[in-house]
Amino acid sequence: xxFWVSDSIxxxxxxxxxxxxxxxxxxEFYHPSYNLKSAFSVVRALDLTKGLFNCLCRPQRESGxxxxxxxxxxxxxxxxxxxxxCQTYAKKNIRVNTVAPGVVDTPLSSKILITKRHSMSAxxxxxxxxxxxxxxxxxxxxxxxxxxxxxxxxxxxxMEV
Length: 161
Fold this sequence. Notes:
- This protein is an alpha/beta fold.
- The chain has a single domain, classed as NAD(P)-binding Rossmann-like Domain (Rossmann fold, 3-Layer(aba) Sandwich), CATH 3.40.50.720.
- Helices cover about 40% and strands about 15% of the residues.
- The chain has helices spanning about 25-30, 30-45, 70-80, 80-90, 110-115, 115-125, 135-145, and strands at about 10, 50-55, 95-100, 155-160.
- A four-stranded parallel beta sheet has the order 1-2-3-4, sandwiched between helices.
- Helix 2 runs parallel beside helix 3.
- The two termini are about 30 Å apart.
- The model has no long low-confidence stretch (mean pLDDT about 75).
């Protein structure tokens, strides 16, 4: 196993409120702002001399997914500033990238994965399976590796379904 010292911050915001916008409560409407505040707080906390900032965002999906309005807002709020932040902080040798995972088997997603939706999600996946946290951490490890120091402003989709 390879180890290295890293000047990296990885932000892993998330929520899993699956309902259409018209059924969302006022309180649920504020959940996307938590993701945005989290990402901006991390940027503000960076050592502005060097480093790396990674954040999870939503996969790019042109057609959208029903009942994902709040998730889409939250992840878009994190993804949107990526290209601007990478321009702003590149001259300070700070790299900004995002990782956009598909469905991953985590405690947060377990409530939907124990249902028949699990098999439906797996069938929609190109590889026919649900992602595991290690799939995402491997991509993040790639970014953190100092040998990959010439990558910034990128969004990497890890198995969109």
